[in-house]
């Protein structure tokens, strides 16, 4: 996007969420796919300082946002209350993997055919390229429901890993197939690439460009297991302008050059990571 639209976008973002539909209108009118992605994975949510909390996730103190009765980590990952109190009843794991790599799913009846088609495309990607199998639910107890978050954007999120019972992936009407794949990645158990322990060898976080109060989204997640090499093209990578307050990048390569985000689909590295988790 150009500088002009950045400035406009930024001004609008400082307003309350009641203007969210205006944001979308401005976004769609003036911007490219990048902005669309920014909205759909909920990485530009308006900050409510009173809802920023600290909790324990696998022994690490993390910062998250409490919103709508849910715990949002790194913007679009939803942690259960049980995960946050460090419950050890599941062997100390903050999430479990899906038994046998089988993930049963349903699609909310109000999803709409456009998003339903995107889900089908994303499911096909998982089923043909990874060892996870996404299977329409019949009567299984443990499953994912794709829900329609809103028609106004900023509602792409997912529960992380296998939760037990019903869990959700929320999509809004502007989400891309690549972002559906991203949210399904959280369901499979993936966190974000930029939060890896080794990320500072590959990327440089531009702290001065991050919106006030959002820096915690760029903290490393040390308790996770880094699988395979760092992959800046990962479908699980934040995009370069995530949470930018001034239109300037918040993440660059370690050599201070810009990178281009990928939301077209899996990279080989993403597939290898998932297949290491689900051999
Ligand atoms: Zn995400």
Automatic annotation (TrEMBL):
Co-factor note (free text): Binds 1 zinc ion per subunit.
Classification via SMART domains: ZnMc
One GO term of the biological process aspect: proteolysis
Binding site for Zn(2+): 182, 186, 192
Gene3D superfamilies membership: Collagenase (Catalytic Domain)
InterPro entries to which the protein is assigned, alphabetical: Astacin-like_dom, MetalloPept_cat_dom_sf, Peptidase_M12A, Peptidase_Metallo
SUPFAM superfamilies, A to Z: Metalloproteases ('zincins'), catalytic domain
Transmembrane recorded as keyword: no
Record-annotated Peptidase M12A domain positions: 83-279
Pfam families xref list: Astacin
Active site annotation, chain numbering: 183
Record key words, sorted: Hydrolase, Metal-binding, Metalloprotease, Protease, Zinc
GO MF term set: metalloendopeptidase activity; zinc ion binding
Cofactor dependence: Zn(2+)
Protein name: Peptidase M12A domain-containing protein
Lineage summary: Bacteria, Pseudomonadati, Bacteroidota, Flavobacteriia, Flavobacteriales
């Amino acid at each position: 996007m150009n500088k002009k639209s950045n400035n406009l976008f930024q001004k609008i973002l400082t307003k309350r969420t009641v203007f969210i539909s205006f944001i979308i209108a401005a976004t769609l009118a003036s911007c490219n796919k990048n902005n669309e992605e920014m909205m759909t994975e909920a990485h530009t949510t308006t900050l409510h300082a009173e809802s920023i909390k600290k909790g324990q996730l696998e022994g690490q103190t993390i910062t998250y946002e409490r919103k709508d009765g849910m715990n949002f980590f790194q913007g679009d990952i939803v942690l259960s209350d049980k995960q946050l109190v460090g419950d050890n009843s599941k062997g100390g794991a903050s999430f479990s993997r899906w038994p046998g790599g089988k993930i049963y799913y349903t699609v909310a009846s109000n999803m709409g055919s456009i998003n339903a088609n995107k889900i089908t495309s994303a499911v096909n990607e998982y089923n043909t390229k990874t060892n996870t199998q996404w299977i329409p639910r019949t009567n299984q107890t443990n499953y994912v429901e794709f829900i329609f978050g809103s028609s106004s954007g900023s509602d792409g999120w997912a529960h992380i890993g296998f939760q037990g019972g019903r869990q959700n992936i929320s999509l809004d009407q502007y989400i891309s197939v690549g972002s559906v794949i991203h949210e399904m990645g959280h369901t499979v158990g993936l966190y974000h690439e930029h939060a890896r322990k080794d990320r500072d060898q590959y990327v440089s976080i531009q702290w001065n460009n991050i919106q006030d109060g959002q820096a915690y989204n760029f903290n490393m997640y040390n308790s996770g297991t880094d699988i395979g090499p760092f992959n800046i093209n990962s479908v699980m990578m934040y995009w370069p302008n995530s949470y930018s307050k001034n239109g300037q990048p918040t993440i660059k390569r370690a050599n201070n050059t810009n990178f281009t985000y990928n939301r077209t689909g899996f990279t080989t590295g993403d597939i290898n990571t998932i297949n290491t988790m689900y051999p």
